[in-house]
């Protein structure tokens, strides 16, 4: 890596995660606004973010709650949207599997789209990091975003719609995440998995509660793994 990168893995992770704050913080504020508009109290909205810490599943669950869906449906939908975290965890296991249990538990709580993508990109670069350094880097990526997510929800719940009047941020997270993931597509298996996931996600968009994305992700992993196997890797 370039010499300008800080020697401390935690500090390097901190700076690597900074771009996501520009999008993540407004989203947390927006969640606080929507949650209170849906009837949740400030404490409930803040607790929601504190316990779940996952924007996509939080918005999914909240939408179903607004529609008076059964509790089991709300929980199932939130779990379905967040099942991708299980896939993230599986791919992190070779890197962090030997870390102490409480380290792995902490990483599991902080396993977001951004922290996963940033960390995996770093783990595949040189110079390599040992397990302890990998954990520190991972935590560094969300050391600021996590408290800001909680704070944003709280502020949104208190001040309401006046905070984001006239601002549309729906497009920002996909663009930012795509910019981070695209450079990671380095092999034929990566490319095939990416193309498979795109096509499958579009074809399965009619499925409810984000299940189409889960099926698309599973198909992409199968295709990528099969190509890797056939190439003798």
TrEMBL record:
Organism: Boseongicola aestuarii
GO CC annotation terms, alphabetical: plasma membrane
Membrane spanning stretches: 12-35, 41-62, 69-90, 137-159, 171-192, 198-223
Pfam families in the cross-refs: AzlC (PF03591)
Assigned keywords, A-Z: Cell membrane, Membrane, Transmembrane, Transmembrane helix, Transport
Coiled coil region boundaries: none
GO biological process, one term: L-valine transmembrane transport
Annotated localization: Cell membrane
Membrane topology field: Multi-pass membrane protein
Name of the featured protein: Inner membrane protein YgaZ
Record-linked InterPro entries: Brnchd-chn_aa_trnsp_permease
Family: Belongs to the AzlC family.
Main localization of the protein described in the UniProt heading: membrane
